[in-house]
């Protein structure tokens, strides 16, 4: 049995995650060497050493959740505990939270910072997957099947938005939208839900327009037209990102030889690490990251399509959507397609909360994939035995 289980794991998915994480660790060291000394006054390998510890802890959690049966997370006790802890953590931020990047989104314990909203993403995915899986028999009853699970989603997004962190709240809402769309409900109910959501959000948007459309956020949109026109002010980040990307060309300047990370490109090891990759490794480095991220996302969607269990299928959709959406938001922000939001690049950017949450999420995804492969192989083998026995006329083999 153990051999069958081990053979059923999706090792191509596991290898992709490992390669991307190791590559990210190398690039964090390259991108943070100068800023660690100049900006933070620590040793050049400070962020590399911290990320290495995060990666070790993430690896252990990945192995744990890859082996832990995902179906156990569907129990009401697990879901209730998860909802209570996640909402309690978000509320506690307003009392004990640390302000960074103009948002009170962090718990700070000495040198370690934890961002609860990263884990809320996964909590929302698990919760919606479990509840909508249980409601499959009446998924098209709007009042009973569609609306009730959204109370947790609205509370979580609302608490994150008033930190204020509209980027993360928006990403969670989009992930939830992808899961709801894939839950089996008809398009009429989904459209009705979208319309109600817009109507509900309008008064809140009007009340919070000063924060949503603050001068800083409006500047992020206006600089997209020509960041070099305001290079020394609001366009500084994007202009230097463009310079880094353009300097790399096809082959790049060489690993560790980038110029923009030497005090010109802020947050070079977090939000703008892809710009450093483009400068040092060129198209090849960028392509390597995009191909691996794309493979993980597409593999997750494939697992969702193959999985006959609604809970496992929705988990795979939610996790792959989260990785895909975050990757798009980061890459589009760095390249000036959309305004900058401060979203890290999955597995590559520096950050313990993001890496650990992704390790747990992909561990769950790998476990779902394992169950899909195991059940498929086991049923195929049993069916072959039945067909062989039937052809040979052995009634005892047929019954077994």
Walk me through the structure.
The protein has 400 residues and is mainly α. It has one domain (2-399). It contains 16 helices and three strands. The protein has a three-stranded antiparallel beta sheet with strand order 1-2-3, with helices on one face. The longest helix has 41 residues, at 352-392. The two termini are 18 Å apart. Residues 395-400 have low confidence and may be disordered.
Brief descriptors of the model:
400 residues, mainly alpha, 70% helix, disordered C terminus
Proportion of residues in extended strands? under 5%
> Mean pLDDT, rounded to whole units?
87
Helical proportion, percent range: over 70%
Question: Residue ranges: pLDDT <50 for 5 or more in a row?
Answer: 395-400
Give the CA-CA distance, first to last residue. Answer: 18 Å
User: What's the β-strand tally?
Assistant: 3
**Category by helix and strand content:** mainly alpha
**Integer tally of domains:** 1
Q: Helix count, per DSSP? A: 16
Largest beta-sheet details: 3 strands, antiparallel
Write down the overall geometry. globular
Helix/strand order: HHHHEEEHHHHHHHHHHHH
- Rg, rounded, reads 23 Å
Strand order of the largest sheet: 1-2-3
Secondary structure topology:
Elements: H1 2-8, H2 11-38, H3 46-67, H4 76-96, E1 98-100, E2 103-109, E3 112-114, H5 116-134, H6 142-146, H7 150-161, H8 166-181, H9 187-207, H10 209-212, H11 215-222, H12 236-248, H13 273-306, H14 310-334, H15 352-392, H16 395-399
Antiparallel strand pairs: 1-2, 2-3
Helix pairs in contact: 1-15, 2-3, 2-13, 3-15, 4-5, 4-7, 5-7, 5-8, 5-14, 5-15, 7-8, 8-14, 12-13, 13-14, 13-15, 14-15
